[in-house]
Request: fold
Amino acid sequence: MQHEYFAASNSSEGFKSYYPEVFGRADRLYVIKGGPGTGKSSFIKKCAESARKNSLEVEYYYCSSDPRSLDGVLMLGEENIGIIDGTSPHVWEPIHPGAREEMINLGQFWDPRLLRLQKNEIFSLSNKKSAAYKRAYDYLRSCGNLRAVSDSLLSQFVDREKLQAAADRLVRSLDLPRGTATVIPSLLDAVAMTGRFSFDSFEQNADKVVRIDDFYGVGKVFLVALLRSLSSVGETVRVAYDPVDFRLVNGIFLENGKIAFLLWDKDNTPSDEGKIVNAKRFVDVEKLRVIRGELRYATRLYSDCLDGALHALREAKVYHFLLEDIYKNAMDFKALNEFTYDFIAKLSL
Reply:
């Protein structure tokens, strides 16, 4: 199966981390500390490659700001082993040090004298990067406020009882085993320094796809209702929460049944591919017309604020990679590589 997800997001309420839910499943957890550009992602990737060569299933969790970089992996076997980047903003401190978590300090491979020589530049770039992120989060907060405006406008015209009943019927029609669902946050979308980014892991792993034809965000509300309905089934349920508003859902995947529920992308998906649920049928469209202009206006403003956040994140990207260059030049990567291969050997994957 393809397991490529995010375990965090840049959201309307700041940085949102799902680390405890995702990596709390590990029996052993290695937490990496180190600055930008010190090889944390490469270290994690090499460990994952070794696990795959030994026929272990690996879940990859990428950085929601830089989707080319790994935040962590979970290697599934007789013992589930996790390796994560435990630095800010997804700081992880050991709860059971030694017994479950072990720390890996990549700072042991840098030359602190070289970093001290560039202390002022590091401080300056770090401050500029933080300021750019603050602007991005200010814009994303506005996105959240505008989503609240849209919800308020829509709420009087959405039949939530009908919506929940439809979700319940859909779940019953699947004839799933009863029990208690295991919910795993597995985000597919990110608002990143490189722009909007999405994985297609749910669709790639699915034997059956149910598509939700969205209508002013009501499709995401339907997926929230569907998640409620699935809470009483004996399934592993992967949930792709909306990256900006984590109260909403962009997709659901039933791991045992291999069924995906996804918002319908009309531009890229044929209308005859999979069952389609039309979210518009839960809305009194005739009465909605009186506020449709205002609703469209709020939607346009949301899009503009999201563009503002992406612009600020692109600026943060510049400072981030300049910081990476400074730290890379201070690292002894030969010694790190030797440490990495010794570490992998000791893992006994």
Q: What stands out?
A: The two ends are 19 Å apart (CA to CA). The chain has two domains: 4-110+332-347, 158-283.
